[in-house]
Amino acid sequence: MIDLHTHSTASDGTLAPEAVVDLAAAQKLTALALTDHDTLAGLPPAIARGKKHSLEVVPGVELGIQWDGGGQMHLLGYLFRADDAGLVERLGWLRDRRRERAQRIIEKLKAAGVEISFERVEAAAGGESIGRPHVARALMEAGVVSSIGEAFGRFLSSGRPGYEDKDELTPEQAIQLIRAAGGVAVLAHPGTLKLKAGGLQRCVEELKSYGLAGLEAIWSSHSPEQVRDLQALAEKLGLITTGGSDFHGENKPDIQLGTGRRGNVQVPDSVLTSLRQRAQA
Ligand code: AMP
Ligand code: FE
Ligand code: FE
Ligand code: ZN
């Protein structure tokens, strides 16, 4: 079994890249993709650690996508050249925008009567890619909330007083960025799109026209029905069915690496073989 969706301290996970790999090895996974948001910084240490365990670490990344068709669109990139200049440069730009947004969020919280410092958020981020989970952690440390979930519910989710949009790539830009670096693009957790069957198919067909290779049908928070329907859609459109837990350590405490939320993530090794074939095609 493998896990193709995990986060480390390089973005908004709470375990270092090496510790994520150790956990995968302890679970006897044969391969793991680290898919941090907008950064590749966790890959070299994860790959080095993987060699010690004879566990393959697949280069991955997760991108937020500009999309106003309902819900949230995220895209996963795999098997790209991690030193591709275009990719490296674009991710750096996205991280710069994230820093500016974190500052705007802090201003908004201040206007709502809650004061935390940018330094505190930066310290919570530790790594490269600053996001709302780090603001949430700073709010928790300041005693304003008692959990990450409460921080999102009261302040950070869309429509709450500390919410700020993020600068994101269009679907076409993101898919082309990954492909130009020799990689394959997969639509992450399609269930978060909040589209009905027909709308989802039209959306996925559009992404396919830009070069999408797969659908992440198997995911911690998809219901068994969603997994089944998404697998059927992938098959119908000639896309690869992929999966991963979306492990974030203590930032999402109910999601286990490898097996997801209720042991409902089981991803066979053959998925990686299919992705690799598509990457080389
Ligand atoms: P950002 O990329 O800064 O907009 O932050 C999005 C990240 O926040 C997601 O990748 C999740 O890891 C996390 N997240 C979003 N909603 C919640 C929530 N309700 N509880 C905990 N974490 C969340
Ligand atoms: Fe995340
Ligand atoms: Fe995501
Ligand atoms: Zn993720």
Q: Which characteristics define this entry?
A:
single chain, 7 strands, binds adenosine monophosphate, binds fe (iii) ion, binds zinc ion
Fold topology:
Elements lengths: L1 E5 L10 H10 L4 E4 L8 H11 L2 E10 L7 E6 L6 H27 L6 H8 L6 H10 L6 H9 L14 H10 L3 E4 L9 H13 L4 E6 L4 H14 L2 E5 L25 H11 L1
Parallel strand pairs: 1-2, 2-3, 5-6, 6-7
Antiparallel strand pairs: 3-4, 4-5
Helix pairs in contact: 1-2, 4-5, 5-6
One fe (iii) ion binds next to loops.
Rg over C-alpha atoms, rounded to the nearest angstrom: 18 Å
Strand residue percentage: 5-15%
* Total number of helices: 10
Identify every distinct bound molecule in the structure, by name, code or SMILES: adenosine monophosphate, fe (iii) ion, zinc ion
Q: Give the mean pLDDT.
A: 97
The N- and C-terminal alpha carbons lie at a distance of: 24 Å
Share of helix among residues?
A: 40-55%
Q: Which strand order spans the largest sheet, edge to edge or round the barrel?
A: 1-2-3-4-5-6-7
Oligomer: single chain
Topology as H/E string? EHEHEEHHHHHEHEHEH
How many DSSP E strands?
7
Which structural class do the helices and strands define?
Answer: alpha/beta
The rough form would be described as: globular
Q: Mind describing the biggest β-sheet?
A: 7 strands, mixed
Which stretches are poorly predicted, pLDDT < 50 over at least 5 residues? none
